[in-house]
User: Which sequence fits this backbone?
């Protein structure tokens, strides 16, 4: 490369007579190019701030496509037609990436840049504090008083709260359950699901041996957000805490006990080594196919078991064979708990449509709409009044509302911190390294401790 | 070609000088053995590389052809043949109007980027290969440095800039950024190509009364087709596959290119529709495959331009 200059014969000067002439020609090429470019991409938006053509007074709702059926009236193709008919403004549905991490990255870029691409954001429980602490979300404290909060699950309300301000309204719940094979346990002589992790392991081994079942306990231990939540859950069900977002207590004996239990699932042969690579669909598949005794999964599992068509033709079990229980604990003295959450609705602080946005949020979280959401897509309500609706429970026998109301009430949300995403990244990697056998539970606890302390110290 | 001829000529002459006798033909015998060994290593290498490239593709093909339940049978990777055959994933994606729309978006973005890149890169590369001026090597190195720049690092400032310019959520934002990142490659390929064309060609044209532009247009452009084609195809491929910018700057799902859309095929929340994703991933590689197959010879000659300094 150093020699390129010398390689050019002097004659070359002669080809393009002078540089200015050359540049002129380049200029005309550029002009032609831009004309072409304009023609090629046409139809660009000329709208003001966000770039979305949504018209004056209309509100843009960012959400993933899975919730859309809950807001689409029967016989309609577009969502929110009912809402539009009752209000002065219309809702523009902005489809967000269905991968939550990608969605988070995108929405964070948009909010950080101060755009109003979307007015209302439907997003993960952990976003309220992450975005609210940055001033990116509208403070709803005055709009959403304590009296109105009373009907919502307290843990979800808490998830939207940071420094005394409220940044969101709970949209739907997603909870963790232990699904178990009633038929197999009964045949093995067990009349009730396990209360403790050691009972679960004992039952698993017996059923696996006597009834030739491949796997005991299936869970998703891959290096991802779900892996973080499950690791925290093992610690919580052992009476420990990893962090409350401000102090880190990952090396407490109880926390280490929780991690030790998680790892022992593999070392005792209750879970396959592959759970270290499993996300939810991988963990679910063997259970649905009848190859596993226990499964820890989220609310959508009810629908997958009740309506196995959606998962393909691999389902070999019937809902009548499946029972649901709270997650086991290290000992019965610890109260049952699961780490989950769900989604909240947030309002963009930069949105010019604050009032309209609030009306949409109220509509989407009203008791009538939460009932509709449950009926359409079986997402658990965040309102106690809907959760306790006996009519719904009777209509949907194999659902969380009918079978696992207690578990929904026990759900706790992930640690609240402006840096939750960073924390989760550390925890997911550490828990996963432990499941793969690369480090002991004690080392894992120490690594989590130092990793999270580093993150927490940013905020002080 | 010529080296091969020379080697065989030498060999023939040796054999000629030492006819007959087992001991006498040993040098040739050794050479043949060594050649065999070299062939073995060569073909072994080719096989390994080919397998590592093709195997994942075959797996994707397999996933696209079996029902979702088959994906969850264990162990899944034991065979490359589908457990049972279905074309339902292909019907799923082709019935999906969003998928067809995203193909159009991809085509607009990749097509426009390719055209813009060639129109800027062509003259730039020509100037860099023909004109002598100070800091030319520095400029070439600077251009190359752009392509080393981590895209993620500039995404937030770019976002703010496009917001100020009102270009967010328009194809322009993606085309501009894609062009910036693909231009260096195009310029380097084209510059290498122009450099190997003898300057006498333009000189002759000028003697015949052609202007610089005419000489460029009538002499250089037709001759540089292989370079231009390979630059165009590489530009097209890298833009067709681009994900980050499109995902960040386009909010309307109707404007998403295929790369952004494909991960969104799902059966339900948390349950990706891997079959449809695999089918879509294969379908979108077909245009690229056709392009490359069709222009194969030109791409190779374009890429190897200037590789051998005569």
Assistant:
């Amino acid at each position: 490369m150093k020699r390129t200059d010398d390689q050019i014969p002097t004659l070359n000067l002669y080809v393009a007579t002078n540089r200015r002439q050359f540049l002129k020609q380049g200029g005309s090429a550029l002009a032609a190019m831009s004309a072409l470019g304009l023609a090629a991409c046409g139809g660009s938006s000329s709208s003001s701030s966000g770039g979305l053509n949504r018209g004056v007074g209309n509100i843009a709702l960012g959400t993933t496509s899975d919730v859309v059926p809950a807001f689409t009236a029967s016989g309609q193709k577009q969502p929110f037609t009912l809402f539009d008919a009752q209000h002065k403004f219309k809702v523009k549905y902005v489809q967000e990436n269905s991968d939550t991490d990608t969605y988070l990255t995108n929405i964070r870029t948009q909010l950080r840049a101060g755009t109003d691409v979307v007015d209302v954001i439907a997003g993960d429980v952990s976003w309220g504090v992450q975005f609210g602490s940055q001033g990116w979300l509208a403070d709803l404290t005055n709009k959403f008083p304590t009296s109105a909060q009373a009907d919502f699950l307290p843990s979800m309300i808490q998830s939207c709260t940071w420094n005394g301000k409220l940044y969101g309204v709970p949209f739907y719940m997603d909870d963790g359950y232990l699904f178990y094979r009633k038929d197999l346990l009964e045949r093995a002589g067990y009349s009730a699901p396990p209360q403790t992790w050691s009972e679960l392991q004992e039952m698993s081994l017996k059923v696996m041996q006597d009834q030739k079942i491949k796997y005991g306990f299936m869970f998703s231990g891959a290096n991802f957000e779900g892996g973080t939540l499950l690791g925290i859950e093992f610690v919580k069900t052992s009476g420990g805490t990893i962090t409350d977002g401000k102090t880190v207590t990952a090396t407490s004996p109880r926390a280490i006990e929780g991690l030790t239990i998680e790892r022992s699932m593999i070392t005792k042969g209750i879970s396959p080594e592959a759970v270290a690579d499993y996300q939810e669909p991988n963990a679910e598949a063997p259970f649905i196919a009848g190859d596993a005794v226990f499964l820890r999964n989220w609310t959508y599992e009810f629908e997958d078991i009740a309506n196995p068509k959606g998962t393909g033709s691999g389902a070999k079990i019937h809902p009548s064979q499946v029972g649901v229980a709270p997650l086991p604990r290290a000992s019965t003295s610890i109260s049952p708990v699961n780490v989950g959450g769900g989604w909240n609705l947030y309002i963009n602080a930069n949105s010019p449509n604050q009032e309209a946005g609030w009306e949409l949020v109220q509509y989407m979280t009203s008791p009538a709409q939460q009932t509709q959401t449950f009926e359409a897509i079986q997402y658990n309500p965040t309102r106690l009044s809907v959760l306790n609706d006996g009519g719904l429970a009777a209509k949907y026998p194999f659902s969380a509302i009918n079978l696992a109301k207690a578990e929904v009430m026990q759900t706790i949300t992930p640690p609240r911190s402006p840096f939750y995403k960073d924390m989760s990244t550390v925890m997911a990697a550490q828990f996963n390294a432990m499941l793969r056998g690369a480090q002991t539970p004690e080392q894992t606890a120490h690594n989590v401790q130092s990793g999270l302390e580093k993150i927490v110290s940013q905020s002080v | 070609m010529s080296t091969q001829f020379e080697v065989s000529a030498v060999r023939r002459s040796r054999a000629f000088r030492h006819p007959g006798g087992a001991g006498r033909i040993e040098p040739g015998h050794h050479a043949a053995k060594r050649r065999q060994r070299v062939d073995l290593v060569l073909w072994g290498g080719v096989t390994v590389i080919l397998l590592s490239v093709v195997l994942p593709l075959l797996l994707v093909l397999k996933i696209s052809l079996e029902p979702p339940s088959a994906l969850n049978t264990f162990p899944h990777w034991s065979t490359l043949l589908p457990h049972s055959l279905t074309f339902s994933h292909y019907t799923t994606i082709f019935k999906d109007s969003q998928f067809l729309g995203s193909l159009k978006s991809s085509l607009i973005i990749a097509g426009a980027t390719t055209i813009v890149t060639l129109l800027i890169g062509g003259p730039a590369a020509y100037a860099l290969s023909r004109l002598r001026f100070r800091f030319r090597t520095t400029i070439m190195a600077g251009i190359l440095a752009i392509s080393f720049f981590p895209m993620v690092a500039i995404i937030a400032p770019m976002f703010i800039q496009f917001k100020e310019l009102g270009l967010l959520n328009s194809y322009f934002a993606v085309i501009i950024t894609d062009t910036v990142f693909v231009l260096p490659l195009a310029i380097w390929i084209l510059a290498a190509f122009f450099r190997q064309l003898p300057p006498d060609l333009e000189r002759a044209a000028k003697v015949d009364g052609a202007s610089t532009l005419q000489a460029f247009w009538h002499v250089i452009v037709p001759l540089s087709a292989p370079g231009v084609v390979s630059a165009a195809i590489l530009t097209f491929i890298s833009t067709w596959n681009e994900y980050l910018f499109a995902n960040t700057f386009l909010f309307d799902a109707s404007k998403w290119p295929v790369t952004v859309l494909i991960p969104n095929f799902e059966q339900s929340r948390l349950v990706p529709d891997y079959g449809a994703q695999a089918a879509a991933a294969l379908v979108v590689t077909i245009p690229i495959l056709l392009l490359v197959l069709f222009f194969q010879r030109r791409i190779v000659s374009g890429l190897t331009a200037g590789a051998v300094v005569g």
In short: Chain A touches chain B through 76 residues (CB under 8 Å). The CA atoms of residues 31 and 37 of chain A lie 10 Å apart.
